[in-house]
Design brief:
The structure is a homotetramer of 260-residue chains. Chain A has 260 residues and is α/β, with parallel strands linked by helices. Chain A is built from eleven helices and six strands. A six-stranded parallel beta sheet of chain A has the order 3-2-1-4-5-6, sandwiched between helices. The N terminus of chain A is likely disordered.
Chain lengths: 260, 260, 260, 260
Amino acid sequence: MAFKVGEGVATISKLVSWAVAYCIACLHQYTIFVTCFHLGSSNSYLDRISSSPSAPLQNYLQLDPKETALVLIEYQNEFLSEGGKLYEPLKECLAHTNMIENSAKLTKVAREKGAAIFHVPIMFREGAPEIYSKFGILSGIKEGGTFQEGTWNAEFHPDMTPSPEDIIVKGKSGLCGFYSTNLDFLLRQRHIKNVVIGGLLTNCCVESTMRTAYEAGYQVYTLTDCTAAIGVDAHDSMYKHNAGMFSTVTNSGEVEKAFD
Amino acid sequence: MAFKVGEGVATISKLVSWAVAYCIACLHQYTIFVTCFHLGSSNSYLDRISSSPSAPLQNYLQLDPKETALVLIEYQNEFLSEGGKLYEPLKECLAHTNMIENSAKLTKVAREKGAAIFHVPIMFREGAPEIYSKFGILSGIKEGGTFQEGTWNAEFHPDMTPSPEDIIVKGKSGLCGFYSTNLDFLLRQRHIKNVVIGGLLTNCCVESTMRTAYEAGYQVYTLTDCTAAIGVDAHDSMYKHNAGMFSTVTNSGEVEKAFD
Amino acid sequence: MAFKVGEGVATISKLVSWAVAYCIACLHQYTIFVTCFHLGSSNSYLDRISSSPSAPLQNYLQLDPKETALVLIEYQNEFLSEGGKLYEPLKECLAHTNMIENSAKLTKVAREKGAAIFHVPIMFREGAPEIYSKFGILSGIKEGGTFQEGTWNAEFHPDMTPSPEDIIVKGKSGLCGFYSTNLDFLLRQRHIKNVVIGGLLTNCCVESTMRTAYEAGYQVYTLTDCTAAIGVDAHDSMYKHNAGMFSTVTNSGEVEKAFD
Amino acid sequence: MAFKVGEGVATISKLVSWAVAYCIACLHQYTIFVTCFHLGSSNSYLDRISSSPSAPLQNYLQLDPKETALVLIEYQNEFLSEGGKLYEPLKECLAHTNMIENSAKLTKVAREKGAAIFHVPIMFREGAPEIYSKFGILSGIKEGGTFQEGTWNAEFHPDMTPSPEDIIVKGKSGLCGFYSTNLDFLLRQRHIKNVVIGGLLTNCCVESTMRTAYEAGYQVYTLTDCTAAIGVDAHDSMYKHNAGMFSTVTNSGEVEKAFD
C-alpha cells in the first residue's frame, strides 16, 4: 500500500492507537516483564515463577469457588517421582518451580474452599494401541512405553492423590486436556466459569489445555509455580511469550487468597 | 519412591531407555538444534528459518497433493500491509522470515500441483460484538478495533488473494483455526491427511491451529519461513520449544519439492 | 442372569424404582402424551403443536433474556418461500405449524426483551465444492444445487430478515448448528445459558442442534410451532420420541411469556 | 414471493429438478419404504428390521476391514440383562430386533476379518456427581442411579464382553458417543473411514453418535437389527425418518458379507 500525501498524521495517530490497544492484550506479558525488570529483582518475573509470597502482583484477583475448577494435568509418577521414565529430564524444572509442594497446598486449600478439583491423568494400554502417529510427541510416548495403565508409572504422585469428592477426568490419550476427554462436559454440567490450570508439561499439555479453555470461553488462570517443563527455558518461554494471550498468569499463593 | 537394593542397574537401563525413546519425540527439535550447531552455520536452524534453498534437511519429505491442504492463516492487511494496525510490531519478523514472498510462491506451486488451498481470515463486525472476553488477546482485538469486516484492514494482502478454486474458511472469531470455523468439516469432506500451515502469528493462531490439527489426527507441517510473530524471539521460541511436538518443522522450499 | 432365591422383592422394588426414575426423563414425553390423551383433546399435544394459545402447559417457564439466545436455523427462501427448491415438500408442514408467523413474532418479542438473536443460515458456493459426501443428505444438497450463496434462494425469508444488532452465525456447511460454525464460540462469549431453537428441518438440523446444545450443557428449549419438517409425521415423531430427552418442549407463546 | 408472468415453465422444471435431487438424499428412506410396500411383504422394511437373511437389499455394500470400526454403544447389563433397571421397558424391542444375538455374531465376524471393535460404555460414580442437569434424559439417569460404575449394572452383557484386542472408549457421560469421549481421537489415529454403529438406544445415543459421525466426515452405517429403543415405535421412527439422512441403513448380515 502506497501512502498518499497527508496520511502522515493519521498514521502516527494510528500507530499510537494500536500501541495502546494491542499492548493491552498480546503484549501484556511483555509489559509485565519490562515493568518487572525496571522495578528490580525483588518483584521480578523470576520471583513470580519461584512463587515468592512477598510479591503479590495481582491483589485484585477474586474467584468464586462455586464457579471455579482447579484442573490438574498429569500429576503422575512417570513425570514426578524418582523412577518415572520422564522424571530425570524434568527434575531441574521441578526443583526450580517447586510445583509438587505448591500444587498439593493449593489443591488442599481449593478443595476446602469448595472449588471443584479435576484430575486429568493420561494413560495407555500396554504397547499403546491407542496411538498410530508416526511423528510428534505421541509417537515418542508409544515408543517409550510411558504412562502404561495398571502400572506404578501411571498412578498419581502420592502428594497428589485424589480425594473421594474430586473428579477424575477420563479418556486423555492426546495432549489437550479437552479434545479426547469428558472435561468440557463435566465443566459445563457444573456451570464452571474459571479454569485454573496446573500440571505438566508447561508448554505441552498445560499449554494446549489453556489455549482450548480460552477458546471455549472459560476465564483461564495459569500458575507459574505449579507447572514444569523439560528445561527451565521451555517453561519460561511459555510464560514469556504465550500464556498472557490466553490466560491470567498468576501463582498458587495468589489463587489461594482469591478464594476468600 | 525409595530405591531398593539392586535396583541400580535397572534404573540406569531405564534412564538410557527413556533417553532414547523420549528424545525421538519431545526433544526431536533439540536434536535438530544440537545437530545443526555441530554441523556448523551453513546448515543451521537459522538458515532453515531464512529458507536457504541450499539447505535441504529432509530430502525424504513427500506429500500427495490430493491428500494435502495448505492452510493459510490471516494473510490480511491488518498484519501484513503498511497501514495495518499490527504491521509495525510485526515488521521486523516479516523481514526476518520473508514470509509474504515465500507464502505466495508456495501457494502458487501447491495450487498448480493440485493441493487444496484453504484461506482462514479473521474478522469482526464494527465494535466486535462477537467478543465479550475481558482478558487475553481477544479483549485486545476488541479494544483495538482490528480486523473489522468490510474494511481494507480485513482484506487479504494483495499477494495472497485467493483464486476462485480456493476455499475460504468461515467463522474464525477465536484464535484456533478449527474451534470457531468450518475448517475441520471441509478438510474431512476432502479426505485431507496432511495439513501444511503458514500465517500469523507463529505463537498464537498458527500454534493453536497446529496443536488442534495434531490432536485431530492430521499429519501436520509447520513452515519456519511462512510464519511470523511479534518479535523474532517469540517466533524462534515456538519452533525451538513447541513445534516439533505437534508437527514436522520444515519450510516452503522443502514442501514445494515434496509435491513432486 | 439367573435370579437367586430371595431376589424377588428386591427386583419388584427395583422395577418400581426405575419406573419412577426413568419415566421422569426418557419417557417424559410419553407421559405428556398419555396425560394429554386422557385429559381430552382440549389440552392435547396436538394442540401444543398447533400452538393453541389457550393451552399453557408450563406456567412455570421463566427465562432471563440476558442469558438466553434464540437460535434460528435456516429461515431461508430455499425452504420457506414459493419458488424455493424445497418449499413444495415443506409446504404442508409449514401450514400445519404456522412457523413463519410464529417465529417472526417470537423473534420480535425476544429482541425487544433483550435476548440475543442468532441466525444460522446454510450456504454453499456454486457446485458445492465444500461437499464430497457420496451419501446422506449432504449429497442431495450438492446434487440439488440448493442454498447457493449469492442467490435469492440462500437469502433470508423477508419476514425473518436479521436486525443490525442480531448475530449471523458463519460457516454452516453441515447439519448440526454447532459443528461447522462459530455458534458455540459466540454463545460462550455472551455467557448464554438458555438456547431456544426454531427453524428447519425439525428432525434434521434442528434436532442435531438440539442434541449438541444439550450435550454442551445448555438449557435447551424446542418450539413445536416454530419448526417444520418434510411431512407432518416426521415433525410429530421428533417431538413424540426425541425432543423430550434433550430439551424442554414448548412453543413460541410460552417463551414470549417466559421473558417477563 | 409473487410469481411473474412466464415463470411457470421454469417453476415446473425446478419442481421436477428438486424432486429428483432431493429424493436422492433426504427422502431416500421414504423411497425404500414406498418401494418395499409396493414390492410386497417379502422384501419389506419390516423384514430388514427383523434381519431376514433372505432379503439382501444392498448387494453392492463393501467395507475394507482395515478402514472400518464397529462402534458398540452401551451393551451393558443395565439395558440388556434381566435385573437391569432399564431392561423391562426395552424388553419388547430387544425381542423384536434380536439385537443381542445379531450384535454378538457381527462383532465376532468383524473382529476375525480385522475390523476395529470399539466398545462405548456409559457409567457414573455413585450419586452421579458428573451430572447437574435438572432436565432431559441425564437428570433421569442421575435420579435413577443407573449405570453406576463398579456395579454389575454397568458391566458389559456377557455375550458382548470385549476381547483383549478391542478398544474400550473412555469418558462417556453424555449421550453422543463422541462429545465426552476419546472416540474421535482413537478413530482418527487408526485412519478409520467407515463407522458401523450398533447399540442402545436407537433414537438416543445411537442416533446422536450417527449424527456426529456423519458431521465429522465418516461414512456411517446403522444397523436395524443391532439396535433397540424404548418401544418398537421409537425404534422404527428413527429408521423411517432420520437414519437415511446421516447413514446407510443396513443390517448385520449385509455388513458381515461386506467384509469379504
